[in-house]
Amino acid sequence: MQLIQAKGKLSCCSRRWLGVILLMAIFLGYFSQGFLDLKGNHLDLPSEQPSRAAHQNDLPVVKLMRLIYPKPQVLHPPRNDVLVITPWLAPVVWEGTFNIDIINEQFRQRNITVGLTVFAIKKYVVFLKLFLETAEKHFMVGHKVNYYVYTDRPADVPAVPLREGRKMVVLEVQNYARWQDVSMHRMEMISYFAQQRFHREVDYLVCADVDMKFSDHVGVEILSPLFGTLHPGFYGAERRSFTYERRPLSQAYIPPDEGDFYYMGAFFGGTVSEVYKLTKECHQAMMMDKSNRIEAVWHDESHLNKYLLYHKPTKVLSPEYMWDEQLLGRPAILQKLRPPEREGTGFLSSGLAPSTIRAPEGRAEPGPAATGPRTAQAWLQPVPRGKTQLLREAFPDKALLSSSPTPFCAAPTRSFIHPPSQPDGTYVYICNLFIYLFILTSVSPCEVAVGSNVSVCCYTVLSQALGTVEALNKYD
């Protein structure tokens, strides 16, 4: 009997507890449903209210633009006459391989700022005005730009009107007697300021020579963590013809069986961090060479090529970006056909008519005359120098610079260089000069160049030899 009563009490208690648990389950279920509804309403905001959600979190609102463009064709690539991708999957930027409207929109969403570094040391400050004026017309149009001008003559920096969102920063640096020292400290100064201030002010750095002008659109299609530009004198040459540093004692040494491309030292760049690594390592290598009493054949350009060989660029610019049609002609691979200038774009007919340009030597040279729209003009062109005129005066009856589209006949667009400081190198260059003069009297450069790269090599030898003579005569 007592057992039955105990069971009855237990069953009664169980029913009570069961009721309490049931009520709690109903209570929790009701409020959890309300919480989920509230959360769902927060996440599934209507598309027409993005600004309120963004402003509640103090985030910028990015309004996406609707773009209409032709569908990319997988089976029909835009270019099949040139290399458009490297073996390490870096794109090679040629005209016709990109849609600038798409790329502009992608970078516009990121609100980037691009830094353009340029060195105007001593008399080279005379090139700065034309450089900045043409950059304002064609460089990174529609994006924010900081011009970083390194100079020892800040008072001579011209006041060039700048677009909204652009500014010029003058960085006063030391002057050096030898241009080779200027070249070496260029890498040092870029790396120093990249660490000190550039990383706070810009997202990308583009490093260019001052003795050039922009003649067409150069935009965000070039931007990448690390990019280099193919030298227009060697883009079709074999690696053994590249003018790498071949002396093992130099830190820029590259063996004859190595090398991808020959990059031009006049135009390279990338993110601030990558440019810092590049310039720092190149400067350290140049200082080590200096301690070993040796200078690379092309100085900073030789060290740049060594760096880009073992630290592959993530983007490679075609020689179109440094092409000079007047010197190199127009090969069939140049498909750059731009329309006349339109409002709000970077397209230009290249009808610039700069006034008389003062060469560093102090004598005047006429700038290129306006010839109306030109369909295969380079993005960047070297400004004529007195040294080029010296060559033409020395050999008026020889076609040293062929207009043939054959890539092996294309002479480098770089200006004549000064000789290395080693005294024993002068004898070699003078001997090579006589060899080249013998070739000139027997056969034209284009005839020699068929199946080889003799014309390019001879042009280089002559450049070095004339540089030696100029240095001895204190031409500069």
UniProtKB/TrEMBL annotation:
Give me the residues that bind UDP-N-acetyl-alpha-D-galactosamine, please: F119, A120, I121, Y124, D209, V210, D211
InterPro entries in the cross-refs: Glyco_trans_6, Nucleotide-diphossugar_trans
UniProt keywords, alphabetically: Glycosyltransferase, Manganese, Membrane, Metal-binding, Signal-anchor, Transferase, Transmembrane, Transmembrane helix
The residues responsible for catalysis, as annotated, are: E301 (nucleophile)
Q: Does the keyword Lipoprotein apply?
A: no
Kindly list the GO CC terms recorded for this protein.
Golgi apparatus; membrane; vesicle
Question: What is the similarity comment for this entry?
Answer: Belongs to the glycosyltransferase 6 family.
Name of the protein described by the UniProt record = ABO, alpha 1-3-N-acetylgalactosaminyltransferase and alpha 1-3-galactosyltransferase
Tell me the organism. Ornithorhynchus anatinus
